[in-house]
Amino acid sequence: xxxxxxxxxxxxxxxxxxxxxxxxxxxxxxxxxxxxxxxxxxxxxxxxxxxxxxxxxxxxxxxxxxxxxxxxxxxxxxxxxxxxxxxxxxxxxxxxxxxxxxxxxxxxxxxxxxxxxxxxxxxxxxxxxxxxxxxxxxxxxxxxxxxxxxxxxxxxxxxxxxxxxxxxxxxxxxxxxxxxxxxxxxxxxxxxxxxxxxxxxxxxxxxxxxxxxxxxxxxxxxxxxxxxxxxxxxxxxxxxxxxxxxxxxxxxxxxxxxxxxxxxxxxxxxxxxxxxxxxxxxxxxxxxxxxxxxxxxxxxxxxxxxxxxxxxxxxxxxxxxxxxxxxxxxxxxxxxxxxxxxxxxxxxxxxxxxxxxxxxxxxxxxxxxxxxxxxxxxxxxxxxxxxxxxxxxxxxxxxxxxxxxxxxxxxxxxxxxxxxxxxxxxxxxxxxxxxxxxxxxxxxxxxxxxxxxxxxxxxxxxxxxxxxxxxxxxxxxxxxxxxxxxxxxxxxxxxxxx
Length: 498
Ligand code: UN1
What we know:
Layout: E1 9-11, E2 14-16, E3 23-28, E4 31-40, H1 44-61, H2 66-95, H3 99-119, E5 126-128, E6 135-143, E7 146-150, H4 158-169, E8 173-177, H5 183-195, E9 203-205, H6 210-218, E10 223-229, H7 232-244, E11 248-252, E12 257-261, H8 267-279, E13 289-295, H9 299-311, H10 331-347, E14 351-354, E15 373-376, H11 383-386, E16 393-399, H12 402-410, E17 414-415, E18 417-421, H13 425-434, E19 439-442, E20 458-459, E21 477-485
Helix pairs in contact: 1-6, 2-3, 2-5, 3-4, 8-9
The chain binds 2-aminohexanedioic acid.
């Protein structure tokens, strides 16, 4: 362990150890002999220190003019452009997705950074007439204070950027708890904030478990907002914790997204989309295409082509540029995915078309590799149709008509993303209207959101908020309506208006 780097928490502009002195290891899921580093196993005292620093820093940061705040965010984002390759390499090493995709993850943080720099000079409120003479009305956004950010491992830099950049440009300060599987990516990002001159205390990282760090953060009286991306079960717990003292609470949770392939679709294009949507990021996206609903007229052609393509995917260490799919993020995630392969086969009685297990032998034994897996004959009552798997498993369900397809798309507790493949513009627009999700695609898979549009979902995916785009400002600000009466007399709204 002598040459393993120890990474520290960042609190009040200093790199510090957890008060307990404990650390945890971060290992490469493609090769568990590779220890990436040790990170602080923090607890409530560290959270308290970080929140105290963020509360103190907030007093000044909220008064820094927004364009000046944005100038710092611009420098940070420019630096990230230069550090992109290094950050991507570290990210593949710590969470396994292939290097092209980790470059995309860093790029998403860059895109969001530049977008939010623009908000330094926008953050538009509006002015509006008064019902009374000699009175001026306007509304402005105001920051909330200290924001607690609890971020996932599947987009280890992009999702932190979706939360950090809008929070900061609006004048909030931050305590971030990265996922225990991916602290290095958040460390790399925050190190740039430190080096580019963000004032001490404005951003703080505290690493550690959900129980020891997440829980004290979400229940801390001086935290005004929690923004969380992760599972629906944990989201429910966070929602309850935030309700006690009415914290702003933004939750981005599970998905069970479908691609609907109509009988007039370009089948080859739909196969390309399904392959990328289902097995990109090893299926570990909230937006993954985990249900494929296919019209009976094209189901045979679609299935044959997709299965052949899935069988040909090269699975391995994501640092190898020729690899198509990396490992599951950790052993427990792999076991969950393997258990769904069993559920599909045994309990659900679906037809296994390819894959169905762990990859073993040679280098595979060093990591958490699962096979690209497709089930056929899947019906809507099956668990593999209804439950989020978050791994390299997708399912094919037959439908007999457009209306039945739409019904199947909506037959899920979640509502993040959906898509239709069709050449019929009328069907495309009807599907756009009738599929109830936060994101919808036409002739593209369910993944691939861009940062200037709202990201989030309905039903058990979200709690009514969105990240990214202008909508992403709402989570981290409150409206203040301001009335300026320059009449010099008492004027009573709703009463003196005749
Ligand atoms: C996620 O899966 O949690 O739209 C985020 C996409 C990516 C973001 C996914 N831009 O698939």
